[in-house]
Amino acid sequence: MAKTGPSRLRPLTLRFLNAPAHAQLTSQEDLVKKLFLIDFLWIGLAILAGLVWSQHDQNEYASQLDHLGMSEMAQEYVTSSSRSVTKAVAELEKTDFSGYQVQFVTKQLVYVYQRGSVASLPVETGQWFSTGDFASSLPVAVVGHDLADKLYTGSNNQRYLSVNGQYIPVMGTVGTRKGSPLNKAVFLNTSPSMANEGLTLKQVKIYVDGANQHSKTLKTILRASRVHRVHFSDSDAATWWRAYGQTALFCVLLLMGAGILSLLMVTLIGPLQTSGLEINMRARYLRGVLSSCASHVGISLFLGGLFANWWFYFTTRTNIWSFLVILTIATIIFLRYLIRRKDRTSATT
Question: Which residue in 9, 145, 155, 234 has a CA-CA distance of 20 to 30 Å to 74?
């Protein structure tokens, strides 16, 4: 009679206990192969997201150029003070904050004071004002390219613009698409040591961009009675929809596309190999499936994001990467729900 003792039973028992782990490994390898094909769809989705946010940035930048470089976050300081612009600029010079621009706007001219680096206008020839220009007593100008033919050329090919009977050297020209107000603008530097023709604060519109956190101090310096967001003439419903509404709609569509791809991923997984597994092993197996799906999604969206950042135009890359991170997190949460629901359905059937 054959032996049936412990020495004969032990190999069979070990093979039985190791079967779930082996099945899990084989299932993971098959899953990787199936998900490889769908990775290209995730990369395409990330590229589409890049296209959406690139178009958003281009629309926003075009609007900013129409507003002479002022963003939608710019503030207008309303004042009836007879204080001179020069004295106000002298006090601005004494402050310790930077990274902002002030425009004192008349009907024909825009007097500019700037501290630190701010968003620049598209310079076609020459250059924009330097830091030294905002400290100099010598006036210089930057003009829109539609005014280039009205300039006078002096010695050494220096061009001049006639302003109030005075010939002011032109440092450069700026311009954008046809019909933009920027193309006809005249910018003059202003400084604490410049006369500015005795211009007073009540004679100009005062726009400040990049210093909203210092509005209390600026309100005192500019003798403003109130401060509010700039209401540009084209800030109507249609403009808002073009700048924000369409981007929001496309983002919702991209999220729906991610949901469809998630459903496709879970379908490609096929039947979950959880039959006969104990609770801990079952949970471990499901985490492995989710981890495989999540890694494919994360890596694919990252690669698509890299391509989009290389191919498309962005004024800031924070928006596209923030959206891709949100898209990845939302997808993983949805995948977790789908995988657990599929597991419960399999257990029921």
Answer: 145
In whole angstroms, give the CA distance from residue 340 to residue 336: 6
Structural contact between residues 228 and 75, judged by C-beta atoms closer than 8 angstroms: yes
- Tens-digit pLDDT profile for residues 193-227: 887 778 999 999 999 998 889 999 999 999 999 99
In the chain, where does DSSP find H-type helix? 6-66, 85-94, 215-221, 237-240, 246-269, 279-311, 318-348
The verdict on residue 82 lying in a domain is yes
Q: Could you give the angle at which helices 6-66 and 279-311 cross, rounded to 10 degrees?
A: 30
Rounded to an integer, what distance in angstroms lies between the CA atom of residue 2 and that of residue 334?
56
Per-position DSSP letters for 209-257, written without gaps between them = ES-GGGHHHHHHHTT-SEEEE---TT-SHHHHIIIIIHHHHHHHHHHHH
- State whether 56 and 78 are in the same domain: no
On whether residue 10 sits in a domain, the answer given is no
Give the separation between CA 194 and CA 132, rounded to whole angstroms. Answer: 13
CB atoms within 10 A of CB 295: 13
Q: Domain boundary residue among 165, 199, 229?
A: 229
**Residue 77: closest CA among 50, 115, 104:** 104
Give the chain's domain count. Answer: 2
Query: Is residue 144 located within the same domain as residue 243?
Result: no
Contact between 340 and 80 (Cβ < 8 Å)? no
Residue 329: phi and psi, rounded to 5, are -65, -45
Q: Do 215 and 261 belong together in one domain?
A: no
Q: Phi, psi (5° rounding) for residue 316?
A: -145, 135
Can you tell me the mean pLDDT for 319-338? 96
Task: Give the domain extent around 279.
Answer: 24-63+237-348
Residues 74 and 206 in one domain: yes
Domain boundary among 213, 229, 245: 229
Residue 6 placed within a domain: no
Strands 110-115 and 75-78 turn out to be unpaired
Place of tokens 């003009």: 143
pLDDT band at 276 (very low <50, low <70, confident <90, very high): confident
